[in-house]
Structure formats: structure tokens, C-alpha cells
Amino acid sequence: MKWITRERPKIDRLACPWLIIKFVDKDAQFIYVPFKDVLRVALELDATPFDIPDVEYTHYGDECTFDYIVKKHKIQDPAIYIIANIVRGADTDRLDIAKEAAGLSAISSGLSYNIKDDYELLETGFKIYDALYSWAMHLYNQNHLQNSPFENLLHEVYLKFLKSKNATKKPQWVKELKEMIQDQVDAQLSIDIKKLSSELELNPSYLSREFSKYFDDLNFGDYVRKKRIEKAIDFMNNPKITLTEISYLTGFSDQSHFTRIFKKYMGQSPSQFRKKLEKK
Asked: What highest taxon heads this organism's lineage (predicted)?
């Protein structure tokens, strides 16, 4: 089947032939002629005109010819839906529709400027849309850092830099809070973030939100449990103190609770851990 449109294709008149070949008519032939000759030559060659006014395959409302082909031929492909938004944004100069629309517009304009032969331009355009389809099908949810080990390494270095930079500017309350938590762990007292925030004259919500930045990337509860486990390990070096006593001395509700939390953090039960200490 022959398809015809106006010469000097740029966006829709490259995207539509690609879509037609892929999903509508794999044997399609495309003809580019001056705008004033499209309808006349279409009649002479029995070709289907597209992307010109007053024909079936054209723009409707805010949608472009690419959109019409998708609907007309009931193309149900998630990747094509993604591409349709990009083509519509680029072809109608509404670049806010898809963030990739500006890039497609720029590339299409550059191709049209560099390649003067419409059929060579069409062949090159097919490669562009093949690549765009592969991206929409397989890579749409990936970002540049995921695809570039070098960029990812730079990103990690930057994050470490920020972390080290922040570490040199710890608020005064961080040191005070660490000491308060340690004191209460040593005294087997219950630890309440609201009470601590009141003593530090800080808003509890602020303290909860900022806590992990300065305490090993742990939330308040996990950090306290970590300190209790560290305290328990200190007690295990004394064989005269039973595990039941250790669970009580470190603020756990009972030995079962102590065992469960210890295994979560250390990867083994308290009794297994203690046996290894005794062998050293």
C-alpha cells in the first residue's frame, strides 16, 4: 500500500511511517511531494494521504497523526503509548507533555537540517524511532546513573562527601543525646524519645526526622536496640552472669525478646555467640 504526505518530514511525518511499517502495513511505501501536490498525486497513485489537513489520517484536536493511527488501528503497546506522548509534545510544540519531547524535537530538526533527501531522512528516522522504541520498552524506568558505572561512582563519592561534610557540622544536641542514651542503657532505664527531646529542648518530630543522619543511619528504636546489644556483649564476657540476667540488665522485657533481637543484629543466638567467646 502507498502512503503519501508533504515533503521535508520532521517529526510526525517520520514517526508515522515508522509506526505504519511496524504495526499497520509492513509492505508500506512512502511518497513525499510538495504540499500542493499531495491530494492530486494520491489520486493518481491510489495512495493514502496522511498528516495534511482534510484527510482521514491527520490531527484531531490536540492530538497528532501518530495518535490517530494508534487509535484507528487499535495498537495496544505500552511502549507506543509512551512514544505517542513524546511525538505529540514535539510535533505540537507542547514540550511539557513529556520530558523527552524537547530532545526529539531538537534531534528531528537537526536531521532535517543535515539531510536534504527525504528518503534518506526517512531511513535515518527509522533508526531513531527503533532506538526510541527499545528505550520505551526496556529502559524507560532506568536513569543515567543506573547505566553508567562511572557516573554511579561519582554519585557515591558525592554522597560520601556530603556525609563527611555534615559530620563535621554535627549539632551540639547529637553529642548530648548519645551520652543520654548511653547513660540510660547503662542504668537499664526505659528510653523515651519524647522525654529526651524535652530535656534537649527539641521538637520530638524534628528529633525523629533528623536522628538517622547522625546515628549510623538508624532510626531511634533501632539505635537504642543496637546499644543494648553492645551492652549485652560486654556482659557476656563475664561467665557468671546468665543470659536471663543479661536480658534484664540490658532493658529487654524477657530472655525471649532479648534472643530474638540479638539474633536479628548478630546473626546468631546469644548462647551461640557466648560459646564462641568462651573458645577464644
From this structure: Bacteria
* 164 domain-assigned: no
204 in a domain, yes or no?
A: yes
Give the number of domains in the chain. Answer: 2
pLDDT at res. 37: 97
Residue 156 lies in a domain: no
CATH number, position 254 = 1.10.10.60
- pTM of the entire predicted model: 0.54
Q: Residue 165 above 90 pLDDT? A: no
pLDDT at 127: 95
Residue range(s) defining the domain that contains residue 242: 172-279
Q: What is the DSSP string of the chain?
A: -EEEEESS--SHHHHHHHHHHHHT-TT-EEEEE-GGGHHHHHHHHT-EEBSSTTSSBS-BTTB-HHHHHHHHTT---HHHHHHHHHHHHHHTT-TTS-TTHHHHHHHHHHHHHH---HHHHHHHHHHHHHHHHHIIIIITT--HHHH-HHHHHHHHHHHHHHHHHHHTT--HHHHHHHHHHHHHHHTT----HHHHHHHHT--HHHHHHHHHHHTTT--HHHHHHHHHHHHHHHHHTSTTS-HHHHHHHTT-SSHHHHHHHHHHHHSS-HHHHHHHHHH-
pLDDT higher than threshold 90 for residue 279: no
